Write the structure tokens for this entry.
Amino acid sequence: MDIVVFKIILVLVLFVLSLGIAAYSTYAERKVAAFMQDRLGPNRAGPFGLLQPIADGIKMIMKEEIIPATSNTLLFVAGPAITMITALMTSAVIPWGPDITIGGIKVPLQVADINIGVLYVLGVVSIGVYGIMIGGWASNNKFALLGAVRASTQMISYELAMGMSIIAVVMTTGSLSIGHIVIGQSDWNGMGWNVIMQPLGFMIFLICAFAECNRTPFDLPESETELVGGYHTEYSSMKLGFYLFAEYVNMFISSAMIACLYFGGYNFPFMEFVQNLTGEIIFSVICVLVLLTKILFFIFFFMWVRWTIPRFRFDQLMNLGWKVLLPLSIINMLLTGAIILFFN
């Protein structure tokens, strides 16, 4: 029973952490944009504008909620709910640190260490596109529908190359469990990261992560200059907030997946030396902080790219996915198989 209590506590901590990072990612996004454009950014709500995300959240909750008269009300409400739920579900298989012992009970810092963790993430992410598609269609708005169609074609196209790049990692580690993949990168005193063996796979996964999160330069589903607001054009109040929050939660989980699959997860240089110097609890806390640092770096990278690279045209986006990334991911998978066959 005690392990169940620990799992519930871990779920609640992850829920609060996901929402907290998503909220303050909006603040960081505006600060990064301001820095790159030589502006100040949010600086009114609280010291240095640190209370701006709370003010934005209150504004979202207090705003009038409008449901179009010609929309399908049930699906209109279900769309943002599906998107937000699927975004939050993906963090369940992320390993945040090594197991710890509390009161004689071994507690894993992972909600669910399932042996098909990679497939679980891909499956849940693929369900998330239904929330966008349903919301866009149920709005009964041509701009929303066009944005939803763009989102579905984009996410389906880039999931193929993303899956192929992950297959190469699975081939080298021999497991679909994200926990086992992270443990497998603890060689060389914590520096046996997969990015060293899979640089091409990492680049493919990173580009596909941008497309899956609808981030610039792949933000065509919600491009304001063309589609007003894309699939969430007709949404207001917290329903709009769910769509916007889900994007930042997905960015957080994508950064966590990049860190776990290619950058060692919670592994870090000289970790065995640090483990010998510290106790089990302190070492686990250090591992969690290391993983969070890697995640925050990749979130910053997402934001940096947004204010650096212009948006693609839709035909360029499709050509990149089908004619460049998919063939490269297949070649990377075949090369990985050949290396494993002839050198192991």
Q: What stands out?
A: The beta strands are 100-102, 105-107. The chain has one domain: 67-100+112-343. The CA atoms of residues 132 and 324 lie 26 Å apart. The longest strand covers residues 100-102.
